[in-house]
Amino acid sequence: MAKAPDFPTRLLRGYAAFRDQRLPLESSRYKVLAEAGQRPRTMIVGCCDSRAAPETIFDAAPGELFVIRNVANLVPPYDPDGEYHGTSAAIEFGVMGLKVRNIVVMGHGRCGGVQAYIASRNAPSDSADLSPGDFIGKWISLIAPAEALVCDDPAETADAQRALEFASVRKAIENLRTFPTIRSLEEIDEIELHGAWFDISTGELYVLDQATGRFSVAATPIG
Amino acid sequence: MAKAPDFPTRLLRGYAAFRDQRLPLESSRYKVLAEAGQRPRTMIVGCCDSRAAPETIFDAAPGELFVIRNVANLVPPYDPDGEYHGTSAAIEFGVMGLKVRNIVVMGHGRCGGVQAYIASRNAPSDSADLSPGDFIGKWISLIAPAEALVCDDPAETADAQRALEFASVRKAIENLRTFPTIRSLEEIDEIELHGAWFDISTGELYVLDQATGRFSVAATPIG
Amino acid sequence: MAKAPDFPTRLLRGYAAFRDQRLPLESSRYKVLAEAGQRPRTMIVGCCDSRAAPETIFDAAPGELFVIRNVANLVPPYDPDGEYHGTSAAIEFGVMGLKVRNIVVMGHGRCGGVQAYIASRNAPSDSADLSPGDFIGKWISLIAPAEALVCDDPAETADAQRALEFASVRKAIENLRTFPTIRSLEEIDEIELHGAWFDISTGELYVLDQATGRFSVAATPIG
Amino acid sequence: MAKAPDFPTRLLRGYAAFRDQRLPLESSRYKVLAEAGQRPRTMIVGCCDSRAAPETIFDAAPGELFVIRNVANLVPPYDPDGEYHGTSAAIEFGVMGLKVRNIVVMGHGRCGGVQAYIASRNAPSDSADLSPGDFIGKWISLIAPAEALVCDDPAETADAQRALEFASVRKAIENLRTFPTIRSLEEIDEIELHGAWFDISTGELYVLDQATGRFSVAATPIG
Questions:
Q1: In Å, how far is C114's CA from the nearest CA of chain A?
Q2: CA of C154 to nearest chain D CA: how many angstroms apart?
Q3: Which co-factors does it depend on (chains A, B, C, D) (predicted)?
Q4: Is the distance from CB of B46 to CB of B106 less than 8 angstroms?
Q5: What is the full per-residue pLDDT of chain A (223 aa) written as tens digits?
Q6: Whose CA is closest to C167, among C154, C150, C152, C155?
Q7: What angle do CA B22, B24, B26 make, to 5 degrees?
Q8: Nearest C-alpha of chain A: how many angstroms from C155?
Q9: CB hemisphere CA count around C208 (13 angstroms)
Q10: From the candidates B57, B65, B84, B103, which should be mutated to test the interface with A, based on the most A CB atoms within 10 A?
Q11: Which helix (H) or strand (E) element contains residue C9?
C-alpha cells in the first residue's frame, strides 16, 4: 500500500532556484512557446545517464532541443510491428510532427549500458549485476550489431569500451536511416543526422565526421 | 546516401558556452563521478518536449538526475514478454543498478502526445497530423487507461487536456507499481514515487499529493 | 576540505529508540561488562552485508558475540609476515585475548563479494563494476582456493553461487586450522569451529555438518 | 583433526527467537532486498567488541547498515600495494559498489585494542597479554599516529584511554580522506564522513563535531 511521502526537498530547492533565477530570464520564451507550440530544430537521442544531460552540455534554452533519453542512447532499427516502440515513436513525433532539422545521437564515456553489454557478452552465463532483470538484458542486446562498426584504428581500439560507444553511435545513425521518412528527408537535404560523444570525465565533446567515420574533439565555432 | 554535413553551429556555440562557463564550475563533479560512477538519488520519467527539461526545471547538477524521456512521459505496465522495452529497461537500470531513492513522473502542460491522443480519440477516422505514422499512434494509445483516473473536480476538468495530463501522471505511477521490484521496495520504504506537472506557460511546478490524488502548486521549502 | 555535516538523522532516531527501549532492559549487562570486561563465548566471522547482521540473526545480547565482518566473510590462511592483517589480528585477539569457545564462519546468500569473484573469474579482462578498484579484486581473489571445495552433489551445484558460498565457508574453516594456536586448542577440545550460511531471502539458517561436509537447515533445539 | 561438534545450542536458541519473533516482522524486507539487492545508505566502521554492535545501538533494520568490524575500528591509510587489505576492500565495496552516502567511524569505551596499544607503548618490552601474538601487535600499531590527535582539553585528557579512543576516530576519518575516491566524493558533497563513540558502560552515544573536533553526547532529533 502506497504512503504519501513528501516531494523530495532537494528537488523543491532546485525548482525554487530555477523559478527565482532562470525563469525570469526565460519567461517570455516559455510563454510564447506555450502559445505557439514548440519548434525545436534539433532532436537529441541521448542516454539516461545523470552525467550526460543534453540541455546542460549544449547550454540550451527552453524549446531548443527535443530530447529522447534511453539506456545507452540506442535507436532500434525500423520495425513497424504494432508493438509499443517508445524510441521509434518519439523519433517519428520529432521528425513528422515537429519537423526537426537535425538529429544528433549523443553517446558518452563510461556508459553503464555499454559496460553491461560487454560484461554480458564476456560472461553470458554469468549473474552480472544487471542481467537478472526482466528488461535490461534484452534492451542492451541492441548494441550487438554495433560491434561490426568498431573501428580498427589502434588509437581507438585501445579503449575497448569507448570504441564500442563510438560504434554504437555509428550504428544508431545507420538505424535512423532505416526509417523510410528519415532516409528520404536526408536525401533531399531536409534533415541532417549527426553523431557526438561526450567525455563525462573531462567535459570534452567529440563529433563524428561521417565522411571518414572518425570521432574527434569538436572545433569551436569562430565568432 | 549519407553526406557529411557540419555539426550544427548552434550546438557548437552552446557547447562552447558550457565549456567556458559551466564546465569550470562543475569539472570536479564530472571528474569524480566519472571515476566513482554515477550515484543519482532521483529518476525522472519526463517528456521529450523541448520546453520541459528536468535538469533545467530542477536546476540539477551533473550526476543528480537519471532521466528517461519519451513522448508524454509514459510508463507502460510491467510486461516481461521478451520484447525491447526501452522505458522499462531504463526503469530497471535505475532502480536495481543505480539504487535510486525517488522516482518522479513529470508531466507538463500542452503536451503534444496527450493532445494527439485526444485528437485520435475524438476523431478516430481522422487523418490527424501524427496518426499516419507507424509508431506514435500505438505509443500514445498507452494513455487510454488514464482516462479512468481523470478527477471529477470541476476546477480540474475545466481544462480537459490538463485533466488528462494529470490523470496520465497518476496512471504512470500506478504502472510503476506493477513492477514487482518497485512495489516491493516501496512497501519497505526503500523507494518513493512522486508525481509532478510543469506548466510550460508560467513556469509553475505542481506536485501530486498521493493521499488526496490532487495536484497543487509546489510549496517552496524553507531555509 | 571537510565540511561539518550533521550526524545522519536516521541514525540519531535509531539510537533514540535503542536508548529508550532496549537500553533499559540491558543496562545492567552493559554496566557489568564494562567493569568486568567482555567475555564473549563466540566469535563470528561474518560478511559486511547489510542483510546479514549476526546480532540480529542470533538475537544476541550485548557481550555475547565478538564479531569480525569483512567482505565475503573470508579468513586468510595464517601468514605472519609482518604486514597489517586485520582479520588475522581480530581472530588472534578473540582466541588468545578473549578466550572464545566457538568460532562460527557465517556466509550468506547473494553475497556481493562471491558474485564479484565469479564475474571476475568468468571475464578476467572485463571492466566489471567492482574490479577497477584498488583493493576489492585482490581481496576476493582469496575466494579462489575455495573452488576446490565445491561439493559435487547436484542438489548443491544447481545454484553455482550458493555452492561457492558454501565452499568458501568450508575453506575459511580450513584456514582457521592453519593458525597453530587454533589447531592446537581444537585438538584438546578447547575450541570449536563451525560453519553456517544464512539465506537472506527466506531467513533460514543452514549449518555445516563437518562429518559429512554438508549444509542443512538448522534444527531447532528442544526446550 | 577436526571433530564434528554440534552447533552451539545458545546460537540455535537465539536463531529460533529471531525466526519466531523478528523474522515475521521483517520477512518482506529480507525477501525484497534479496531480490533487488542491498541498498544501505550508511557504512559503519566499528569494533569487533561484543558490547558495541552497530545494529543494536542504531536499532537498524535489515539492509540499513553495511558494517565493517575490526579490532579498534581502525582505517588504515590508503596504500594500494597489492596486498590483502580487508578493511580497505570493504570500504571500496561500500563506496563504489553500493554507493553509500555516509560513513560513520564508531569507537567505544574500554576498547581492548586501544588498551593493548597503550600497554605495549608503556611497556614495550613487556610480555603483555596480547603482545606475543603474530598479528595483533602489528595491527594496533596503526593506532600510533592517532596520538598526535589527542585533544589537550583537560576534560578530555583526564581519561587517557578515552582520549585516545576519541583521537583514533579522528585519525580514522583522516585516513578515510586519504582514499582518493572518498576525498573526491566528499568534496562534491556526495558522501559524508562522521565520527561517533559509544559508552559501553552507560549506553550513551557521543558524536564528533568536525568543525570543533570535539565529541559530545548526541542530541535526540525532534519529531
A1: 11
A2: 23
A3: Zn(2+)
A4: yes
A5: 344 578 999 999 999 999 999 999 999 999 999 999 999 999 999 999 999 999 999 999 999 999 999 999 999 999 988 888 999 999 999 999 999 999 999 999 999 999 999 988 887 554 444 445 789 999 999 999 999 999 988 888 899 999 999 999 999 999 999 999 999 999 999 999 999 999 999 999 999 999 999 999 998 776 5
A6: C150
A7: 70
A8: 19
A9: 28
A10: B84
A11: helix C9-17
Residue type, D75: V
Q: Which residues of D touch B36 (CB under 8 A)?
A: 95-96, 181, 184-185, 190
B16 closest CB neighbour out of A15, A209, A221: A221
- What is the sign, positive or negative, of the torsion defined by CA atoms of C119, C125, C130, C134? positive
Q: Which of D3, D176, D4, D169 has its CA nearest to residue D95?
A: D176
Q: Which residues of C touch A163 (CB under 8 A)?
A: none
Question: Can you spell out the DSSP letters for D116-163?
Answer: HHHHHHHSTTS--TTTTSSSHHHHHGGGGGGGGG----HHHHTSHHHH
What length does chain A have? 223
Q: What does each C-alpha distance from D204 to B65, C20, C37, D216, D223 come to in angstroms? A: 39, 11, 18, 10, 20
Partnered with residue A43 across adjacent β-strands are: A66, A103
DSSP state letters, D97-114 = IS--SEEEEEEETT-HHH
**Beta carbons within 10 angstroms of residue D125's beta carbon:** 6
Give the C-alpha separation, B105 to B114, whole Å: 15
**Residues forming beta bridges with residue B216, ordered by sequence position:** B207
A121 exposed, middle or buried (CB, 10 Å; 0-12, 13-18, 19+)? middle
By CB atoms closer than 10 A (0-12, 13-18, 19+), residue B98 is buried
The C-alpha cell that represents B192 in the structure block: 518513493
| pLDDT of A46 | 98
CB contact under 8 A, A89 and B187: no
Residue of C nearest to D192 (CA): C5
CB contacts of B28 in chain D (<8 Å) are 184, 187-188
Which secondary-structure segment (H or E) carries C209?
strand C205-209
Domains of chain A with CATH codes: 11-37 (no CATH), 41-217 (3.40.1050.10)
Cell numbers describing residue A172: 544508431
User: Cα–Cα distance between C144 and C148 in angstroms, integer?
Assistant: 8
Tell me which residue in D89, D135, D200 faces C80 most closely, judged by beta carbons.
D135
Does the beta-carbon distance from C62 to D51 stay under 8 Å?
yes
Global ipTM: 0.94
Q: Do B32 and D190 touch (CB under 8 A)?
A: yes
What DSSP designation does A113 have?
Answer: H
